[in-house]
Design brief:
By secondary structure, the chain is α/β, with parallel strands linked by helices. It folds into three domains: about 160 residues, Rossmann fold (3-Layer(aba) Sandwich); about 150 residues, TPP-binding domain (Rossmann fold), CATH 3.40.50; about 210 residues, Thiamin diphosphate (ThDP)-binding fold, Pyr/PP domains (Rossmann fold, 3-Layer(aba) Sandwich), CATH 3.40.50.970. The strands form three sheets. A six-stranded parallel sheet has the order 2-1-3-4-6-5, sandwiched between helices. Strands 9-8-7-10-11-12 form a six-stranded parallel sheet, sandwiched between helices. α13 links the parallel β10 and β11. α12 runs antiparallel to α15.
Length: about 550
């Protein structure tokens, strides 16, 4: 059956192309085949993953790495449900992502037909907006609305649900011009903001993901240099100011640097830019501190002065104002504290020491290519603490991780998304043996597209951080030992992926350096000490104190 050029699916693909979509991650199925047929002849590259969860994780990471909207695609019912984990991950971290699902024909919606489920009712809780399209005109209108929202600064997933008969129907009409109102503040109480900043003796900027998504890095750098106010960041904002500069204190909060948390606990003013004050960030902040909070999401605002505004616009306003913050003594105090407690970043060991400690392994992975500007993808697990501490980000979007949701299995498909965003540059994935197995089917995707992804697997034969929590809480562990792991060498070689084993620090250093130089996929299986714990939040350990007996 030949298709007409004005069928809904063809018009939607044309809109995707005209709005700069270059890559879509997906998996086909019956209810979405019409859209796939239109993609077949388009300029958009479709990346076939082996599980829909991987499509949403890959689209999420593509967006984080590139700054361009990621797109994922699935069929109805089970296909759409498999996207849920990745969509929730993107929602929690306010990642702009377009989620497209097929659905049963309109007349079968709600009848209990094969693969019929109320998809939008599920997605509306984990997206900025979920659209059900009952006609071709609605589908076109809603897709254009989604792009308009993204271009006006909406951060988070938008879902469009497309019944099979709608995709196959004709679109009759003109492509509409659409305007959206985000209900942002046109201005703010500039006088009060200036007074708070100028009178502060111990101010601190905390930058969040909104700085990255609004592309306000240059404006932030100008503001920091103008005021000499020190800055700490949330996880997604690592690198908005190079972390090797004195003014940048690094990550604040539960896994934060001692210097950043000391600043957060002792500041008299916090300027929060594009962040949610989540419980993990707030763990590094003292009580009763004056707060200026800027966020595009009005529901997230919780400061003394709340400004619902794009961070870039806010900083542009301040950067032309006369602001003379006297915080020289505060800056000197922070530098002294930072110097006194810098030992947390040191690991003393012998290159032949066996078994290698996981933190030693992480340091050698980073040291092996320390002068190369490559992107690291991180999965959830105990290794996350060490990577967070030791990775010094000099640019944003260089450390990709599911921060707010902490999804195990994120890493492998996310590395695929980053690889496409980075146009084939080597990508380094740090993952535990447990998280690796959650989406290991995507090894075939890596092979198919010949992606140069270096997988550094921290192998302790356990769900180590869960095991640690169990022992800390109940005195015993249960069902956390991975004592029947597969033969990873045979597994990856089935997909023509290189394999290296590493047992010592020297092994890790040489293996990672060699793999990065070859620019082809490789799994480095790093066998680490199975009995190394990390400091747990709310356990009485401060991170700087807790590291002493671990290192």
């Amino acid at each position: 059956m030949s298709k007409k050029n004005n069928d809904c699916a063809s018009i939607l693909v044309d809109i995707l192309e005209k709005n700069g979509v270059s890559t879509i991650f997906g998996h086909p199925g019956e209810q979405i085949l019409s859209l796939y047929d239109s993609l077949r002849t388009s300029k958009i590259k479709h990346v076939l993953v082996r599980h829909e969860q991987s499509a949403s994780h890959a689209a999420d990471a593509f967006s984080r790495a590139s700054g361009n909207m990621g797109v994922c695609l699935s069929t109805a019912g089970p296909g759409a449900m498999n996207l849920v984990m990745g969509v929730a991950t993107a929602y929690r971290d306010s990642v702009p992502m377009l989620v497209i699902t097929g659905d049963v024909p309109v007349e079968k919606h709600g009848t209990g037909a094969f693969q019929d489920i109320d998809i939008c009712s599920i997605f509306e809780n984990i997206t900025y907006k979920s659209f059900y399209c009952s006609t071709a005109n609605e589908a076109v209108f809603n897709l254009i609305t989604a792009f308009k929202l993204f271009k006006n600064g909406v951060y988070g997933p938008i879902h469009i649900n497309l019944p099979k008969d709608v995709l196959e129907s004709e679109f009759n009409g003109e492509i509409p011009e659409i305007s959206v109102d985000l209900d942002l503040d046109d201005s703010f109480d500039l006088k009060s903001v200036k007074e708070l900043i100028n009178s502060a003796k111990r101010p601190l900027i905390i930058a969040g993901a909104g700085v990255v998504w609004s592309d306000a890095m240059s404006e932030l750098y100008d503001f920091v240099n103008k005021t000499n106010i020190p800055i700490a960041t949330t996880y997604p904002a690592k690198g908005v100011i190079p972390e090797n500069e004195d003014i940048c204190l690094g990550l604040i909060g539960t896994r934060g640097n001692p210097g950043a948390n000391f600043a957060g606990e002792n500041a008299d003013l916090i300027i929060g830019l594009g962040l949610r004050f989540s419980e993990r960030t707030s763990a590094g902040i003292g009580d009763n501190i004056n707060t200026i909070h800027v966020n595009i999401n009005r529901n997230s605002l919780c400061g003394d002065i709340n400004i619902c505004m794009n961070v870039k616009s806010f900083l542009n306003t301040l950067n032309v104002e006369d602001i003379s913050c006297d915080c020289g003594e505060w800056f000197s105090q922070l530098q002294k504290y930072r110097f006194d407690y810098q030992d947390y970043n040191k690991v003393n060991f012998y290159y032949a020491e066996y078994p290698i400690k996981p933190q030693q392994a992480i340091r050698e992975v980073l040291n092996s290519n320390k002068f190369k500007d490559f992107t690291i993808v991180n999965d959830a697990g105990s290794h996350t603490t060490w990577l967070t501490l030791y990775k010094e980000c000099k640019r944003p979007r260089s450390l990709i991780f599911s921060g707010g949701f902490g999804s195990m299995g994120y890493g492998l498909p996310a590395a695929i998304g980053v690889s496409f965003a980075r146009h084939g540059e080597p990508v380094l994935l740090v993952v535990g043996d447990g998280a690796f197995q959650m989406n290991s089917q995507e090894l075939v995707t890596i092979r198919k597209y010949r992606l140069p992804i270096i997988i550094c697997m921290i192998n302790n034969d356990a769900l180590r951080i869960v095991k640690q929590w169990q022992i800390a809480s109940y005195g015993e562990s249960y069902e956390t030992d991975l004592d029947v792991n597969p033969n990873f060498e045979k597994l990856v070689k089935l997909y023509n992926i290189d394999y290296i084993e590493a047992f010592t620090a020297g092994d890790v250093y040489m293996a990672t350096k060699k793999a990065m130089g070859k620019k082809r996929a490789c799994l480095i299986n790093i066998f680490v000490d199975k009995n190394i714990d990390i400091p747990l939040p709310n356990s009485g350990d401060k991170l700087d104190e807790g590291l002493s007996h671990i290192i």
